[in-house]
Write a structure and sequence with these properties.
Layout (H helix, E strand, L loop, with lengths): L6 H54 L1 E11 L2 E8 L11 E8 L2 E8 L4 E9 L1 E10 L2 E3 L7 E8 L3 E7 L4
Antiparallel strand pairs: 1-2, 2-3, 3-4, 4-5, 6-7, 6-8, 8-9
Length: 169
């Protein structure tokens, strides 16, 4: 009686081992890819939620109907006065300016009376930024009477639209 394994038995065992290892690797790779995609989607949803919340609070807390749109060196900024101070975390009149610089959307909050001047980065990789006002039955770049504002922000990977209004004005 021979002791040990034949070459054929060793090859079959090796083949089975390779198949099992390949299956385990495939499952682990799929799990890792799913986890990464899930985290990215979660971050995207969180970013949209926070952006929507900040802009909506600014618009619903407007203190007057004037919104100024300025274009300088191809970059557009929007300035408004609101009672939504993120820095002080209370209702204080602040001038808020939204603008894009180096493909990043910023929100600057100022109040000269108390020496407030804070700049926040809201979003990266911004390709397009615009604000429109609902006038009669369509959105236009007419800011004489503010009803409902639509912020349109496009990044490399996504598009955001925040629509909010202040019916008190």
């Amino acid at each position: 009686m021979k002791k040990g394994f034949t070459l054929l038995e060793l090859l079959i065992a090796f083949l089975i081992s390779v198949l099992v290892i390949s299956a385990v690797y495939s499952m682990l790779n799929s799990t890792i890819n799913y986890s990464i995609a899930s985290k990215e989607e979660g971050l995207k949803i969180n970013t949209k939620y926070n952006l929507n919340r900040i802009i909506t609070e600014d618009i619903t807390s407007l203190t007057d109907i004037s919104i100024t749109k300025e274009t300088l060196f191809g970059e557009t900024s929007f300035k408004l006065t609101t009672m939504n101070s993120i820095v002080l975390n209370k209702a204080v009149p602040v001038t808020v300016t939204y603008f894009v610089e180096d493909k990043k959307l910023y929100r600057v909050e100022t109040n000269e009376n108390i020496g407030l001047n804070e700049k926040f980065e809201l979003l990266q990789n911004v390709q397009k930024f615009d604000v429109l006002n609902f006038d009669s039955n369509e959105y236009k770049e007419n800011f004489t009477k503010i009803n409902i504002l639509k912020f349109i922000i496009t990044t490399n990977n996504d598009s955001f639209e925040v629509i909010a209004g202040n019916i008190k004005l």
